């Protein structure tokens, strides 16, 4: 059994051989641990910036994804038929 791949954030932030070695182990084992990382809002971006980027979306760089058990905007058979009627009506109005 191998030890968990651990990297010190200060060392990894310098780049070079430390970062290369840590990323190689993450690639090999599928995960890694970082110690002494920044403690601030959105600190995860500091870690991601070491080896990649976060793609900007229409929602911004950082956004929360919330789920609801019974959403009111979910697709249900009732709403499908309402949308279908609305599409048919809009199509008929154009004709």
Characterization of this structure:
The model has no long low-confidence stretch (mean pLDDT 77). This protein starts with 5 loop residues before the first strand and ends with a helix. The chain has a domain of 56 residues. It contains four helices and two strands. The chain has 95 residues and is mostly helical. Helices cover 45% and strands 6% of the residues. Strands 1-2 form a two-stranded parallel ribbon.
Share of residues in helices? 40-55%
Residue windows where pLDDT falls under 50 for at least 5 positions:
none
- Helix tally? 4
State the oligomer. Answer: single chain
Topology, please?
Layout: E1 6-8, H1 9-13, H2 16-29, E2 33-35, H3 43-48, H4 77-94
Descriptors:
95 residues, mainly alpha, 4 helices, 45% helix, 6% strand, elongated
Task: Give a brief outline of the structure.
The protein has four helices and two strands, in the order E-H-H-E-H-H. It is mainly alpha-helical and 95 residues long. Strands 1-2 form a two-stranded parallel ribbon.
């Amino acid at each position: 059994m191998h030890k968990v791949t651990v990297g010190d954030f200060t060392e990894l932030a310098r780049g070079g051989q430390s970062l290369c070695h840590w990323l190689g182990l993450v690639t090999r084992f599928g995960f890694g641990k970082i110690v002494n990382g920044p403690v601030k809002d959105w600190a995860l971006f500091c870690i991601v910036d070491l080896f990649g980027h976060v793609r900007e979306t229409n929602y911004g760089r950082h956004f929360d994804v919330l789920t609801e058990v019974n959403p009111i905007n979910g697709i249900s058979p009732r709403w499908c038929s309402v949308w279908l009627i609305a599409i048919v009506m809009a199509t008929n109005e154009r004709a």
